[in-house]
């Protein structure tokens, strides 16, 4: 037998198929160890054949076959080519996406528990062997877990028993169930007419992609789950993506409740062992639904019947590390390969997706009402300029304070949203204007009151809090920009008896960190939840009747064509947390620019108005999707190395531009807005292109220009232009 192998080395020069001879049981999808250029390398078998394709005497044998069952599903070999072509990465890098990282590089980690059992109790022991005798006695009571058994009776006694053939060790594969909650009873709900109609049009549409635009609380989740139930009935499988699985424990619970052990989670917060087990349950066919964040799009499922992407507008669906793939694009490839539906859902679809839906490329399902026609919460705008004029320098408007007091008095819960962690964003010297900055990054340091230190939010570096200004020695230091820690401190001052929880990157540690805070709040162990972006996602807390958005226009002022869209989405999402059950909800939206049109649309939940206006602007100014923003980033530790590569990239693209000036709307090279992150300087060639036709060549330029000292890579319509 012979096999075709992709060697697991991420280098363009070895990005081809190599042939080896192999044992008969080897099959496509297995991982192997092969001799490669004087070393041993890992590889993926992508095909097998009975006869060699060239001189058999020159073909080396595979050294080792890792898998009895192939690790990769057959679909990988088709997707591998598409992904490698599209994002210009070696095929090995494309294949890696389909395996949990702990399976690669020999770190095969099926986790076992070792047990010891008695096999021959009658062998006579020496007189001195008291411990051994005691151990045998213990084993007569049943098999024991090996590690603790050794602790009790001593390693040498246990080894002696094994050597004498008295006892034997055996292994059992350990099943780890992350995030329990399986035993809850599931009672089906009757679908509303709108939900049934949605399901009908998904099933009967001839379009692969279906966009569900449904306001928060309109019952989208129930549609997803019902559709999954349908495809499972047909013997098929499903992938269900959410922006961040740890932020949506309720979604997981619902899935578990309904589908029990058929659902498996793919989630970076799990331990390596848990991750592997869940992956294996999917690969072996035991589990049929993969739920997870963007990387779960690579779930090892065959015979897919549905792919669902909830909150499809969320920027986490764009990968920010190589390969920089768009999850929706990969999902489409998989949906087309499997001939199944891709369902995108959101209360605030991305402008790109909604255009596709209105132009007929996607099917469109509109759910304008909440379940039971429950009203959307009323949004009150608080003008912070007039608050400041009145001498209110606290983070809370009068309106928010009054609403908070009332909510607490009624025994309901409130959520306060502010997308900035720490106590203050910056520390400034009032005498000379000095701002504390990170040594590794070109950003200011945030003050964290709990640890009384300064922290860099880009590289995580910690610094001692300043006693005096290092520039002028002045001692009048001022905090700029309120963060969540200060909000909690101030709230405690205003409402001393209120119980407050905070949820941001500093408070959620460990794999269950999010889950613990959210479930404590869900159990009403706190009255107010203060948090960043992570509290905006699809939580469903019935007692929350007030949401405060402290700095609604923070994201409006980013110099990004999507800042309006982001702001609209954020307000709608956060507001959607309020008044989901019986009581009516309210939202107080604090802003320094109350007249801004984005806020006006958001207050009225006018997605269509927002969308039409946004499309007009994008068209008139030639911004995506009416153009493509393409950025080639160049990063390096040394300025010189970066500049050399930058120059090369720039001239190569400039040559493209000269040959096709029409295609370029904008083209320039410059420092990136943040000039340094984690000790690496950052430069960019930024362009706006009429179409994607030059993209493959720009990717090639980046690959070709990268050196060991400086990395060049391409970003398409990056979510973040810093
Ligand atoms: P969305 O995903 O659109 O935000 P959900 O699916 O979370 O909305 O539904 C909002 C609320 O309505 C949830 O509490 C859910 O349990 C409830 N719900 C959904 N569908 C139905 C139904 N058919 N009958 C009764 N309640 C429903
Ligand atoms: Zn830093």
Describe this structure in words.
- It is built from 20 helices and 30 strands.
- The chain has 722 residues and is α/β, with parallel strands linked by helices.
- A hairpin with a 4-residue loop joins strand 19 and strand 20.
- It is globular, with a radius of gyration of 29 Å.
- The chain starts with a strand and ends in a 6-residue tail after the last strand.
- Zinc ion is lined by residues 438, 440-441, 456, 458-459, 461.
- Residues 461-618 form the Helicase C-terminal domain.
Helix % is: 25-40%
- Report the total helices: 20
Question: What is the general shape?
Answer: globular
Number of strands: 30
Mean pLDDT: 90
Instruction: Return Rg in Å.
Output: 29 Å
Contiguous low-pLDDT stretches (5 residues minimum) are none
Strand order of the largest sheet: 11-12-10-13-14-9-15
The gist of it:
This protein has 722 residues and is an alpha/beta fold. Helix 1 (75-87) runs antiparallel to helix 10, helix 16 (563-575) packs parallel to helix 17 and helix 19 packs antiparallel against helix 20. The structure holds adenosine-5'-diphosphate and zinc ion.
């Amino acid at each position: 037998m012979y096999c075709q192998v992709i060697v697991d080395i991420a280098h363009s020069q070895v990005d081809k198929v190599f042939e080896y001879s192999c044992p008969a049981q080897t099959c496509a999808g297995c991982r192997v160890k092969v001799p490669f250029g004087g070393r041993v390398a890992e590889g993926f078998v992508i095909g097998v054949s009975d006869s060699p394709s060239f001189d058999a005497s020159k073909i080396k044998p595979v050294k080792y076959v890792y898998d009895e069952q192939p690790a990769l599903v057959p679909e990988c070999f088709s997707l591998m080519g598409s992904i490698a072509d599209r994002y210009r990465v070696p095929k090995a890098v494309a294949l890696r996406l389909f395996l949990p990282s702990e399976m690669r590089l020999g770190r095969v980690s099926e986790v076992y528990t070792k047990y010891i059992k008695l096999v021959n109790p009658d062998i006579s022991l020496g007189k001195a062997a008291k411990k051994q005798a005691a151990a045998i006695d213990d084993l007569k009571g049943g098999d024991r877990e090996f590690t603790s058994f050794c602790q009790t009776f001593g390693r040498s006694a246990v080894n002696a028993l094994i050597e004498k053939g008295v006892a034997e060790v055996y292994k059992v594969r350990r099943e780890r169930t992350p995030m329990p909650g399986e035993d809850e009873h599931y009672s089906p709900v009757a679908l509303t007419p709108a939900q049934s109609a949605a399901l009908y049009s998904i099933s009967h549409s001839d379009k692969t992609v279906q966009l569900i635009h449904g306001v928060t609380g309109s019952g989208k989740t129930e549609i997803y789950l019902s559709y999954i139930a349908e495809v499972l009935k047909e013997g098929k499988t499903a992938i269900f993506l959410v922006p961040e699985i740890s932020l949506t424990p309720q979604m997981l619970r619902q899935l578990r409740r309904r589908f029990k052990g058929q659902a498996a989670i793919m989630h970076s917060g799990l331990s390596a062992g848990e991750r592997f087990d869940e992956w294996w349950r999917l690969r072996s066919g035991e589990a049929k639904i993969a739920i997870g964040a963007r990387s779960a799009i690579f779930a090892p499922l065959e015979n897919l019947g549905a792919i669902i992407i909830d909150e499809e507008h969320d920027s986490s669906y764009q990968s920010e590390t190589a390969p920089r793939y768009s999850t929706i694009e990969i999902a489409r490839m998989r949906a087309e390969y499997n001939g199944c539906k891709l369902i995108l859902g959101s209360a605030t679809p991305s402008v790109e997706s909604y255009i596709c839906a209105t132009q007929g490329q996607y099917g469109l399902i509109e759910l304008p009402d909440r379940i039971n026609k429950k009203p959307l919460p009323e949004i009150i705008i608080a003008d912070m300029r007039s608050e400041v004029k009145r001498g209110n320098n606290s983070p809370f408007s009068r309106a928010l304070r009054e609403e908070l007091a009332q909510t607490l008095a009624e025994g309901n819960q409130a959520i306060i949203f502010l997308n900035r962690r720490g106590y203050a964003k910056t520390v400034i010297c009032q005498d000379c204007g000095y701002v504390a900055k990170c040594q590794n990054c070109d950003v200011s340091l945030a003050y964290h009151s709990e640890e009384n230190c300064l922290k860099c939010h880009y590289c995580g570096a910690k610094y001692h809090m300043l006693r005096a200004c290092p520039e002028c020695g002045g001692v009048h230091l001022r905090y700029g920009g309120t963060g969540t820690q200060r909000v909690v401190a101030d709230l405690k001052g205003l409402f001393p008896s209120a119980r407050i929880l905070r949820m941001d990157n500093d408070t959620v540690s460990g794999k269950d960190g999010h889950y613990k805070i959210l479930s404590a709040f869900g159990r009403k162990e706190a009255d107010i939840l203060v948090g960043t972006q992570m509290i905006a996602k699809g939580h469903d807390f019935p007692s929350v009747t007030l949401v405060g958005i402290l700095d609604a226009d923070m994201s409006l002022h980013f110099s990004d064509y999507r800042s309006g869209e982001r702001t609209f989405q954020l307000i709608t999402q956060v507001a959607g947390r309020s008044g989901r059950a019986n009581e009516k909800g309210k939202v107080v939206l604090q802003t320094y620019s109350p007249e801004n049109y984005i806020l006006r649309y958001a207050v009225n939940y006018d997605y269509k108005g927002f969308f039409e206006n946004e499309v007009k602007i994008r068209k008139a100014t030639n911004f995506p999707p009416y153009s493509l923003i393409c950025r080639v980033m160049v990063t390096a530790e040394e300025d010189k190395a970066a500049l050399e590569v930058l120059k090369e990239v720039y001239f190569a693209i400039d040559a493209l531009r000269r040959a096709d000036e029409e295609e370029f709307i904008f083209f320039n090279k410059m420092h990136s807005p943040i000039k340094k992150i984690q000790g690496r300087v950052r430069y960019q060639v930024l362009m706006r292109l009429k179409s994607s036709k030059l993209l493959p060549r720009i990717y090639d330029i980046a690959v070709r220009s990268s050196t060991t000292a400086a990395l060049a890579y391409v970003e398409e319509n990056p979510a973040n232009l810093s």
